[in-house]
Automatic annotation (TrEMBL), chain A:
InterPro entries: Ald_Oxase/Xan_DH_a/b (IPR000674), Ald_Oxase/Xan_DH_a/b_sf (IPR036856), Ald_Oxase/xanthine_DH-like (IPR016208), AldOxase/xan_DH_MoCoBD1 (IPR008274), AldOxase/xan_DH_MoCoBD2 (IPR046867), AldOxase/xan_DH_Mopterin-bd_sf (IPR037165). Residues 27-138 form the Aldehyde oxidase/xanthine dehydrogenase a/b hammerhead domain. The keyword Oxidoreductase applies. This is Xanthine dehydrogenase, molybdenum binding subunit apoprotein. SMART domains: Ald_Xan_dh_C (SM01008). It comes from the Bacteria. GO terms for molecular function: iron ion binding; oxidoreductase activity. It holds the Pfam family MoCoBD_1. Gene3D superfamilies: Aldehyde oxidase/xanthine dehydrogenase, a/b hammerhead, Aldehyde oxidase/xanthine dehydrogenase, molybdopterin binding domain. PANTHER family: ALDEHYDE OXIDASE 1-RELATED, XANTHINE DEHYDROGENASE. Keywords: Molybdenum, Oxidoreductase.
UniProtKB/TrEMBL annotation, chain B:
It comes from the Bacteria. SUPFAM superfamilies: MoaD/ThiS. This is ThiS family protein. Pfam families: ThiS (PF02597).
Amino acid sequence: MALDDRKSHFTFVGTRPNRPDGLDKVTGRARFGADVTAPGMLFGAILRSPHAHARIVRIDTSKAEAHRDVKAVVTRADFADVPFKPGLEGEFWNVLENVMAGEKALYDGHAVAAVAASSALAARDALKLIEVEYEVLPHVTDVDKAMAPDAPVIREGAADYSVPEGMHPNVVRYHESGHGDVEAGFAEADLVIEDHFVTEATHQGYIEPHACLASLGADGKGELWCCTQGHWIVQKTCAALLGIETAQLRVTASEIGGGFGGKTTVFIEPVALALSRKANRPVKIVMSRSEVLRATGPTASASMDVKIGMKKDGTITAAQGVFRLQGGAFPGAPGDMTAMCAFAPYNLTNVRQVGYDVMSNRPKQAAYRAPGAPMGAFAVESVIDELCKILGLDPIEVRLKNAAREGTKASYGPTYDRIGLVETLEAAKDHPHYSAPLKPGQGRGIACGFWFNHGGETSVSLALSEDGSAQLMVGTPDIGGSRASMALMAAEVLGIPYENIRVTIADTATLGYNDVSHGSRVTYASGLATIKAAQHAVEKLCERAAAKWGIPVDAVKWENGCAVPSGPNAGDFDPLPLAEITADMGRTGGPISGHFEATPEGAGVSFGTHIVDAEVDPETGKTSITRYTVIQDAGKAIHPAYVEGQFQGGAAQGIGWALNEEYIYGEDGRLQNPVFLDYRIPVASDLPMIDTVIVEVPNPGHPFGVRGVGETGIVPPLAAIANAVSNAAGVRMRQLPMSPPRILAALKGNG
Amino acid sequence: MVQVQAATTGELLRELVRLHPQLQAPIDAGVSVAVNGRIIAAGLSEPIPEGAEVYLMQRLRGG
């Protein structure tokens, strides 16, 4: 896509106006997933497997169906009985298998049946009337054990072309990449460290549980309201799973209380639609927190081996990593992403990375901010920290010495365009945090992180009103302040105030397909489309001015919200403001709108560097984060307060992942901690003020230079915190989370 | 390193499969194409300039 409209001086972009959804959210006017009702609405509830792995021998729903409050019961048969569109395979099949079990229950919490009843209580009670006979099978929940020869097979034939012969059937995808000769590189090193690292699965931890209201008639026409990061993928997936035409299902995205990648797929929505079709009434389903933790996507857990060679001067001579990720009972663990991102910050002559996607009896993993990247960074940045420590080198200087820059051949293959890693490292070196003294018992950690970012299918429309205000329709749910940044970008092009623009997340009937709000793509891709849509409207505004003035349209230009003659030869006319043109638009050619749709392919990769101070209590093993600084390249910060919020959010979630959050499975394969009391996400008192530094190295692929910022911020924290804790405790921490019992065990093991 | 003649990412993938049928499975599974370092996640109509560095990667996903 040609970008001949690059801009570097801004009026509105870079300011910090109030968020447009602020009043709605603080007054309770905002409508989230569970906030809607419909006449005649029923309440749905889902029966879940108590077993980690079991054959479903028989399901008897007759008693539930006979109950007077129950209006419909569905099982997998209610999906399989409908004539599927041809091609329900691959990920659609996996999603169907996940939202309603087929022959086997594959994890603790797997849906096996659902009811719709006249009250939520009646629905829950009716679940007890459903009789399921299970044949319990051997299970496995650990990634290394799932790869072992004696591991129970979760599904034969799930592996794709990439898996080498002889691997266990639970290994379903394999990735290998790199360049140079790592063995020769290790031979050149003065010091080689090889170490093993483990991370546990964590949940995205969004505050709003999944919720939806579905209505589907026998005519195949439906309406669905749900909290999601992408309602077009919901529309497409539900239509496929229910055997209806995509366009007949209209999906509206609610306000969303967090997603972080976990709301990029469906869980309850097809079930609510199936119940509604059977009961011929609207059906609402709201998940409990326990259901969210047991049955919606946590991230993958990982087992990793990293080996790095370094010369005494800090030059990395070779790097190698093996990354094994389990993603539950379905293909999809991002072992390939872990492998490709792990060494991406460095300019390496010799590098090799291997990634495994492994199935186990856990819930189907879902994306979580930069899926796969934080684990790999934890392993790699820990080894680099240890090398620096033994060789007596400054960790920032070593990273600067080896840093990737424009022209570097990336560890994952291509040559980098303009990137901003060095700028983040220089900013870290110069930041007062890096030179601040530490108190006894404290340690400091540094880590870098990388994420690809994404473009994706995007469609945006803008319509001007007669009073000169503008309504902007975008298709990407606002998960991080995008309504504000879209309005700022539109204001910049139109030259009208931010407050005069209302941004709406349009439903699936209003715009063409929009990819999910993921991959840090929204400010980049919807932003690019917003700029182009606004420019499209400006072209029409200029045409109306040209017609009014009786001069050629190329003699008119747009400046500060007005049409003006493009030069002294174009004629002598007073500037014509946007509102004067729109006031007459009905009589000068009709409504004025702008539209743009494309799949922008210039997202621009992003890097960050984090500095963390941690204090470890040797009595209790508790870690306190005493200071935290995030430095990240945003390309161009459209609304800097939101960019800082993304940086802080990544760090906060990283602190949880590093210190406390983990999925704990018992010997029976059941999740032991499916409530927030036992699954401990950070609360305000766990966090210091998280300082931020926005670095701006413009992305050549965006008119204003934007790079996505939503994901990179969670890549360095696990590593930076582990380095800080290891330095504070005097012992290398190789397993996350670094919860008090693990810290105490490490201190004891260290004598 | 393989050599094919192609002016767009779509042509590139078609030519690769024609000359190297064993690439059908990985390409069907999803690939991204980096052209001079710019990662094209899925687009088939992106131009490939003369002499550009082209690199195939497993398709990227995000959260």
